Fold:
Amino acid sequence: MSDALFRTDSYAKSCDATVTAVDERGVTLDRTVFYPTGGGQPGDTGMLTLADGSVLQVTNAIKGDGPDVVIHVLEPGAAAPAVGSKVKATLDWDRRHRHMRMHTCLHLLSAVLPYPVTGGQVSEDKGRLDFDIPEATLDKDAIAAKLNELIAADHQVGMRWITDEELAAKPDLVKTMSVKPPSGHGRVRLIEVTGLDLQPCGGTHVARTGEIGRVEVVKIEKKGRINRRVVVAFGTA
Structure:
């Protein structure tokens, strides 16, 4: 189990750590700032700096075997450090921060369109949510206008924890039908956009909606009889 620093501080860009395991998948540390692929958010990239100053590029972060075990995937052919080695783990911060901005934007989108979410994906430049919307006609410009209004209002984004039992007693908190909430470890993290949205989420987020910046709704696709995909991208202005 790694000390997953990103769970409590999405803004931590680096940390000192010790290598606890190495296998064909990559390197595991006793603590890390790297978010592993999951919940529609890509794994972080960055580097590991060894005690002698040499640098190993991390091309992805994935979930390992067990809760909060993060495997740092190295570029092909790289020689992994030995177990017990001291390293500094450093994120590609610009990429991570764009993921944070877009992930929070998608939470706002789920508040603008309060329908069951059947899928979602975050990337550096855009994101999307799929909704089950019976007999709905969606207007790209109207959705974008509402999103940008909520972003400009600079709502606070925070987190709190509840027990697995409390989540089970409040199933309405779960919006995403296709992604199981990060439960089973005794407690579940909730992400709250003050006054707008509250839902279980293991991903990384910005602290205020104003940090997202202007966005555009670039596409609305019909994916099924009642399923619609809404694609959002960062604005050009």
Remarks:
- The chain is about 15% helix and 40% strand.
- The longest helix spans residues 93-112.
